[in-house]
Fold Tyrosinase.
Amino acid sequence: NKVTFMMRNLFGSVVLLHLMGVCLSQFPRPCANSEGLRTKECCPIWEGDGSPCGALSGRGFCTEVLVSEEPNGPQYPHTGVDDRERWPLAFFNRTCRCAGNYGGFNCGECRFGYWGANCAQYRESVRRNIMTMSTVEQQKFISYLNLAKNSINPDYVISTATRAEMGENGENPKFSDINTYDLFVWIHYYVSRDTFLGGPGNVWRDIDFAHESAAFLPWHRVFLLRWENEIRKITGDFNFTIPYWDWRNSQSCEVCTDALMGGRNSLNPNLISPASVFSSWKVICSQPEEYNNREALCNATGEGPLLRNPGNHDRNRVPRLPTTADVDFAVGLPEYETGNMDRFANMSFRNVLEGFASPETGQAVPGQSTMHNSLHVFMNGSMSSVQGSANDPIFLLHHAFIDSIFERWLRTHQPPRSIYPRANAPIGHNDGYYMVPFLPLYRNGDYFLSDKALGYEYAYLLDPGQRFVQEFLTPYLQQAQEIWQWLLGAAILGALIALIVAALIVVARRRWKRNQRRKRALSNGERQPLLQSSSEEGSSSYQTTL
């Protein structure tokens, strides 16, 4: 079975690579070298036609990066001290621009929601509640997580130094291999890390390119889409989607069991149960103060076990988990952003959902964590630190549900893109700002739109008929699909047995009839002289021998 699984995944990966090209993530290997840094160009060759960006096939072309010049808010007063400013110009000023439905750093794949060699096929996937998935599906998800944790990513590397430390002409490139799961942990760390200002511990903390302002929801939407695509690539499972955990009205961590995301260790409540595969995981990027003191980036080395102690948190900060009423209140707020568009914004849907404002009044509540933030604090471990929170796989389930609430708000209010802040949001959050640290490039405002335009949907937001199919019928169909070889074999074996039994019955019946005829023949033979008494001796008799 293991060999079959491995061969199927290998074949699926080859097919997926053919259809989609390379995957999406941080620094593409073809650009992570002295030449790429010196020329500041990242326009890799697409193997399909041997040209940069697939230009010969009309997939895209290499062009200058034009960044937004709109002013940022007052929260970050510095200029020219952080590689993430005006992303990605500190590293590259020329990248691939893809045409039509093509995507990827070399235009060798498709944009979200599209498939096929020419990216002309639209396909919609459905993200489902992990609690309603079958045991087989849950186990598959966990095995995919573990595979990602133990597979070095073949296409991307991470930066282990600032651009200045790599030399003016890139003569000292500092990039490192990383496994696929930790690649996304590092991305989440890098987008939220503090700015180094020079000298040990001298940092600017009031900066985050993916939290505390407008880009919080679009950025994490792209993060999940890219993570989803990466898992599809390494497993060959085209149907994979990230499940969500609907935590409304929860009193405990329902997914914290050995069968799912790992139960509590009976000897140390801060650790994961040894019965869970996650107990052996090592976390990365979990020591921000150490990095600040050393003026160094996280280099993705292991830093100890995954920590989690749900419920044993500061209850003054998080008195309870969010309720259905809290979510409904947030969805009902008509304004996406207000005021300075930061964590102090009042009556802002984004700020209430992110968890810096009350889901009962809409007013900012410094010192408390609600909604999204409350789940992070509640987990009381690796997930409770922003920069290292993605180490805990519950992060994915949690953010998938947050994304679904964002989707509910979009469907309820159907906002035009013009309400997304074009200027004066904190750095990294304006409409035209490219999301840090993604390559290829994505603008924040381009993902302020419904999930259907991106090729996915949430099961609980489907109409009743579709929801029944996805949550009740689909699990059984997928289980049948997973064991169809055995079902086919059993059917064939059953048919053979039925044929053999039928043949035996026919043979037995014929023998029985033959015996009956013989008995009658013997009986008839005793009377034959009387029947053959005839006045014409020697004439043929009508009684033939049976």
Summary: The radius of gyration is 33 Å. The longest helix spans residues 484-525. The chain has a mean pLDDT of 89.
